[in-house]
Amino acid sequence: MTYARFEDLPVWQEAIRLADEVYTMTENRDFPGSRSLRDQIERAALSVSNNIAEGFERGTTNELLAFLYIARGSAGEVRSMLCCLERRLGFGNFKSQISNLKLIAESCSKQLRGWADHLQNSDIRGQRHLNEKTRSQYRSKNDAEELQKEILAMLPPDHPLRKAEK
């Protein structure tokens, strides 16, 4: 699926959810963390969605990849701080929130990794490099791959070409 806006990306939506829930936790007046801890975890959480957005808007695959890895690093930073909070005295009342936030941050990391892997195996160099010729070549290649899959699916399971495909 192709997305025209970063706001429609499932990973960006998950990243915004992460930031929102981090802010909800840190803005709680019972949150025992210091001002610097609050600032650091809020910045790291917001950095995930911001880097996804910036990379998406850049227009080249290489720039997008760089920002996806930065976003993934920020998600890791959030998880690391949450792991630290789990071990600190005074955060017992936030155990459930911390656990949920770790899951959201990990989900972001996994989605970002999957997207980056897909982009690294793609021939598309980015929107900035697309013209009618490259779009046509990309469509032709995808159409040929889909046709090949359909033809292979029609062959008997023991056919040598089907065995070679696996």
Question: What secondary-structure arrangement, pairings included, does this model have?
Answer:
Elements: H1 10-26, H2 35-58, H3 61-87, H4 95-120, H5 132-154, H6 160-165
Helix pairs in contact: 1-2, 1-4, 2-3, 3-4
Explain the overall architecture:
By secondary structure, the chain is mostly helical. It has two domains: 6-129, 23S rRNA-intervening sequence (de novo design (two linked rop proteins), Up-down Bundle), CATH 1.20.1440; 131-166. It has six helices and no strands. The protein has helices spanning 10-26, 35-58, 61-87, 95-120, 132-154, 160-165. Helix 1 (10-26) runs antiparallel to helix 2 (35-58) and helix 1 (10-26) runs antiparallel to helix 4. 23% of the residues are buried.
Quick recap:
The chain is mainly α.
